[in-house]
Specification:
The protein has 98 residues and is an alpha+beta fold. The protein has a single domain (2-91), classed as Alpha-Beta Plaits. It contains 2 helices and 4 strands; from the N terminus they run βαββαβ. The chain has a 4-stranded antiparallel sheet, with helices on one face. The longest helix has 11 residues, at 64-74. The model has no long low-confidence stretch (mean pLDDT 80).
Length: 98
Amino acid sequence: MTVEISALVHKDCGQEVLEQMAELDGVKSIFVETARSDDLFEDKQFGEFGEAAVITVIAQKENKDDIFNSLYDTCQLHNTDQGIILMAENVIKIVPET
């Protein structure tokens, strides 16, 4: 089974996550998108809005804790209020009927 680990973090974390986590055991894929947030960060580059990175990691269930902790550490969430991380377990593939 696979899990989805998602994070809404400060924009500076996006590229670093790709570099740090791409080779971790159990990581099947990583997606990083950019967004803007008006309430999550104090650093606001666009008036009322600050830049954010939206990160999605698809991972093997047996490696989920190590990957979650690595994401937490890479984004330095233990030191600062730079975002949130969520995990959805048992991601399944839905195949459309033909």
